[in-house]
Amino acid sequence: MPVLSVVSVPPLNVPSFEEINSAAFQGTIEPVERVLKDAKIDKKKVDEIVLVGGSTRIPKIQSLLQDVFDGKELNKSINPDEAVAYGAAVQAAVLTNQAGNEKTQDLLLLDVVPLSLGVEMQGGIMAVVVPRNSPIPCQKSKVFTTAADNQTTVTFPVYEGERLMTKENNLLGEFSLSGLIPAPRGTPELLCTFDLDANGILKVTAQDKTTGRKADVTISNSTRLSAADIERT
């Protein structure tokens, strides 16, 4: 028969709680710093700091957040547990053209690319064409060339991810552009265009600027990483 016993454990105080969770607390600050860097915004130009999620009530998290913004006062006018719902309601109003309020009628809500999109170059290196956080829809291009003399076909493996080496990113698909005129390596100019529509459908096209020959591939959302996968990258 199982026997229960009482173990003498000291009560958990604030310093101990903060020490035990220090890594987790610091982990909440890293996305904030990354967003500022991606947006190329000076933290001094941030107007309001809104707390989102019940865990932001923890004093240590608030303290760390204030440190990032040099002691700027946090905006606590919105219930952290309801902040996401507020945002969802505003977005729903905008999407259904029901935002009659002056404060919302000029809002423009854009989806962005969660992970950079690009192609694999020689050596397995990722060449980014569409940077992370680019607004959707978007179209961006980059010129590539051949890696060997007299090369008549070039393959374009398409990836998403933030790692330098493609083996650590997610392969979305690939296609080949053939019929190139034999020439010394580095001579042909191959224009690679990424066209991402509002539904997340990606079309990648490569065109030989000399002959006009084209090849392309269309990639649906089903092959892209899920929100949970992106969170783990």
The description of the largest β-sheet is: 4 strands, antiparallel
Q: How big a fraction of the residues is strand?
A: 25-35%
C-alpha Rg (nearest Å): 25 Å
CATH H-level superfamily title of the largest domain: Substrate Binding Domain Of DNAk, Chain A, domain 1
Class per helix and strand makeup: alpha+beta
Termini Cα gap: 47 Å
Order of helices and strands: HHHHEEEEEEEEEEH
Major sheet: order of its strands? 3-2-6-7
DSSP strand tally: 10
As residue ranges, the low-confidence spans are none
Highest-level CATH class of the largest domain: Mainly Beta
Organism: Rhizopus delemar
Protein name: Hsp70-like protein
Keywords: ATP-binding, Chaperone, Nucleotide-binding
GO molecular function, one term: ATP-dependent protein folding chaperone
Topology overview:
Elements: H1 14-20, H2 22-39, H3 59-68, H4 83-95, E1 111-112, E2 117-121, E3 125-130, E4 135-136, E5 138-144, E6 153-160, E7 170-178, E8 190-196, E9 202-208, E10 214-219, H5 227-232
Antiparallel strand pairs: 1-4, 2-3, 2-6, 5-8, 6-7, 8-9, 9-10
Textual characterization of the structure:
Helix 2 packs parallel to helix 3. The mean pLDDT is 88. 23% of the residues lie in helices and 25% in strands. The protein has two domains: 64 residues, Nucleotidyltransferase, domain 5, CATH 3.30.420.40; 121 residues, Substrate Binding Domain Of DNAk, Chain A, domain 1, CATH 2.60.34. A hairpin with a 3-residue loop joins strand 2 and strand 3.
